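Quick start: what a row looks like.
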Amino acid sequence: MALNLSLADQIALELRADIIGGRLLPGMALVEVELVKRYNASRNTIREALHRLGQEGLTRYVRNKGVMVRRLEREEVRDVFVVRRTLELQAIAQSGALTADQCERMQNAIDATTLAREREDWRAVATHSLAFHQQIVGLMRSPLFDDFFAQVIAQLRLVFCAAPDEQRFQSPWLERDREIYALLVQADKPAAGQALSLYLDDSERVSLALFTHP
């Protein structure tokens, strides 16, 4: 990450991380005066940070309520998966053999997911699973794609928050992440790509079902 980020950019990144970590949920208000105190920043700086989050599709201004963490609509969920499928599958298709560093990062994400599941911390399970998929996109070695996909991951977190039963929603994915990782370690890109494609098809299906209204 660049070291010359403005304070507003740094604050926006921290707030995005809070969304990815499940600490800021859809419908929560981002109160300007509280953020000024939290970050010891000016109102203009906070407004600039919140504007950036709005541009990333993570917040929206609601009349008489102020800036709030967004609730995504069904068509937005579908679009998120179009982007996710494009980036993740392309990353696998053009990847070479995993380096030791790439293996370590992926294994760490899977280990963290495993530990969170053992603790039945389903919110953390989702966070660490998303980190694993961030590492898949990282195979392209593109800082621009990495930063863009971090925004996509934050939107995915807002999707997951719509699940009424976190345990049921998050339970199936760890074993499938392990399968994808094992295939990447074996340098079997076609099988890894196929496993990921099926994963994303199923993930999109159950995610869209959260936004189906009777």
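That is the whole record. The chain has two domains: 7-69, 74-209. The beta strands are 59-62, 66-69.
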